[in-house]
Amino acid sequence: MKIMSAPHDPMTPAVEMINVSRRFVTPDGKSMTAIRNFNMTIGRGEFVAIVGPTGCGKSTTLNLVTGLAKPSSGEVRLFGQPINGIDPRIGFAFQTDALFPWRSVIDNVVAGPLFRGKPKAEAYERAREWLARVNLTGHESKFPHQLSGGMRKRVALAQTFINEPQVLLMDEPFSALDVQTRVLMHDELLKLWSEAKASVLFVTHDLEEAIALADRVYVLTAGPATVKSVYEIDIPRPRVASEIRFDQRFVDISHTIWNDLREEVMAGAARTEVAA
Amino acid sequence: MTATVTNTATQTAAPAFRAGTSDAEIEAAAAKAARKRKNMVMFWRLLILVVFLGGWEIASRAKWIDEFFFASPSTIMKRLYEWGTQGTDGVSLWYHLWVTMEESLIGFFVGSITGVLVGVALGRNKMASDVFSVYIKVINSVPRVVLAPIFIMLFGLGLASKVALSFVMVFFVVFSNAFQGVREADRALIANAQILGASKWQITRSVIVPSAMSWIFASLHVSFGFAIIGAIVGEFVGSRYGIGLLINVARGSFDAAGMYAAIVIIMVVALLAEYLMTLLEHRLAKWRPAPLQDN
Ligand SMILES: Nc1ncnc2c1ncn2[C@@H]1O[C@H](COP(=O)(O)OP(=O)(O)O)[C@@H](O)[C@H]1O
Ligand SMILES: [Mg+2]
Predict the structure, then answer these.
(1) In sequence order, which residues have a C-beta less than 8 Å from that of residue B110 and are 6 or more positions away?
(2) Which of A189, A224, A171 is nearest to A57 (CA)?
(3) Structural domains in chain B (count)
(4) How confident is the model over B47-103, as pLDDT tens digits?
(5) What's the pLDDT score for residue B145?
(6) Is residue B126 scored above 80 in pLDDT?
């Protein structure tokens, strides 16, 4: 279906998922399919969002790209090469708070460079730069519990971006924030992304968030997840996430995609009700 | 219209602020209340101690209780004073105390360090923990006290047998807490460290051990007391020096005051150790949120 491109060709997509399936063995020994025949391509520097009902298999999909999990069948490629373990070109933003609570803000941000063997002085220098970029100068020596949810997320972004990932995976990173803070974080993320030129795979259950941020939106079916449809979002950049939802184009796109997504949300809800 | 009304309302509200509720005053009141509470707690603690010791003394002097068995605070103090100034059988009290402390400290450090190491190692390795857990359960089910005569037979009357007993008292408590702490480490934090580029050893050092630390500390609190118990039981069963020996000698001569005096010494040492441990824990756990105070 797709001609395999040479690994070093600059046109090779950042991430390819080719006919990927992932099955789990549940605690009672049954096999359960979380994602099935999944196909997706993320170009270099592209911002792709995945939306789908809760529990459909979005996190499972992301984990396949991190290398923390392996597909049961099919292939996941990173810059044209099969993924083998955790790749240093990948960054991950977690849904839950994944800052180290016993480390101060700056010690959280330097974690990546220090793990990767950068000299201490250089790592701290860069960490200070990144903290400045996310407007947290002056909070270096605070501990995560002393910060608000939005500030913690910005520390987490600095912690991820300092490693200069070429592929950034984000698993509902802002879902725990209140609406106002979330929109501010969207603008923050768009700014960082446009500077860093990374490819982003952004998972969310919030359709408006997906449209505001992404170049393309993948709508998934209620589990087992497979791609239901793909939408190009042709709203011009630079975008201002806090303004965009009043844009007529945005409203139209939301309508179209929502009509598509609604069935899956219903199906997902029915499924969880049966399960419960 | 409404907007202007609210606006003027807030502006005039500032001077109309009720007297006695400025920030400084609230802070002062809170500090005062906290001080008062602290004094109150201290007062009751002292009162209970005085009543207890006074009651004991009076009961003993009035012969409501038999001084032969129960001694009295004053005879215990007298015995402590004698021990402290003249020693017992030519050996100074401080030497006995030093021997016991040496045994307990070595047992405590060796026991807790191996406990942490083995706990973390097994906690990180599912296969090894499944294999060894059954043996650890078996050994753990042996009452420690029955090991005392065995260790004395094996390692003699000196330091080694007491250290060994202290060690087994401490090891299992620290081990099982460290193991549990490792198992409870947040999976998201581990995944985050992995993706940030941490090696397996870096994850152990900078994620697993810090997150198991509160579990480990909880066990260190009790385990210094256990180390002392190990040393004293060992001395009691067979030794030439130590607080346990003093108890044994006092028992042999029906010297109730002597036995209680030895207990007082142990209590003081254990409380001191507990205090030091709490200080250390507070220093290491400054990243944890302090409990909120409301006023
Ligand atoms: N480690 C696992 N073992 C068994 N089942 C799992 C595991 N991880 C996820 N699942 C199941 O796979 C499905 C998809 O989960 P997930 O990818 O987390 O959904 P989403 O992120 O879209 O909410 C769920 O039904 C979930 O119960
Ligand atoms: Mg998820």
Answers:
(1) B163, B167
(2) A224
(3) 2
(4) 999 999 999 999 999 999 888 889 999 999 999 999 988 888 888 999 999 999 999
(5) 87
(6) yes
Q: What is the ipTM of this complex?
A: 0.90
Do residues B57 and B79 share a domain? no
Count Cα atoms within 13 angstroms, Cβ side, for A40: 35
- Nearest-angstrom CA–CA distance, A53 and A56: 6
Task: List the Cα angle B274/B276/B278 in 5-degree steps.
Answer: 70
**Considering all CA atoms of chain A, what is the largest pairwise distance in Å, rounded to the nearest integer?**
56
Percent of chain B with pLDDT over 70: 91
Instruction: State whether B57 and B80 are in the same domain.
Output: no
Mean pLDDT in consecutive groups of 10 residues from the start of chain A, 276 residues:
54 93 91 92 95 90 92 94 92 92 95 96 96 93 92 94 95 91 92 91 93 95 89 91 89 93 85 66
Identify the residue whose tokens are 């974080």.
Answer: A185
Place of tokens 């051990």: B209
**Closest residue to A86, CB basis, from B188, B195, B210:** B195
Cβ within 8 Å, pair A115-B287: no
Q: How far is the CA of A156 from the centre of ligand 1 (A)?
A: 24
Taking only the tens place, the pLDDT of each residue in B150-169 is 999 999 999 999 999 999 99
Structural domain that includes position B174: 75-284
| H or E stretch covering B78 | helix B73-86
Residue with tokens 């004073």: B81
Three-class secondary structure of residue A219 per DSSP: strand
Residue B46 inside a domain? The answer is: yes
CB atoms near residue B266 (< 10 Å):
20
- Given a contact cutoff of 8 angstroms between Cβ atoms, the answer to whether A203 and A172 are in contact is yes
Q: Within 6 Å (CB) of ligand 1, which residues are found?
A: A 24, 26, 34, 52, 54-60, 223
CATH number at residue B135: 1.10.3720.10
Q: In chain A, what are the domains?
A: 7-89+166-275 (3.40.50.300), 99-164 (no CATH)
Judge whether B147 lies within some domain: yes
Question: Can you give the pLDDT at residue B67?
Answer: 85
Residues B90 and B54 placed together within one structural domain of the fold: no
Contact: A145, B207; criterion CB under 8 Å:
no
Residue with the two structure tokens 């944890």: B288
Give the mutation target among A35, A54, A59 for probing the ligand 1 site: most ligand atoms within 8 A of CB.
A59
Sign of the dihedral through C-alpha B219, B220, B221, B223:
positive
Residues B180 and B209 in one domain: yes
Structural domain contains residue B269: yes
Please indicate, yes or no, whether residues B121 and B166 belong to a single structural domain of this protein: yes
Strand order in the sheet with A199-204: A90-93, A167-171, A199-204, A47-51, A216-220, A227-232
State how far the Cα of A34 lies from the Cα of B113, in Å rounded to an integer. Answer: 44
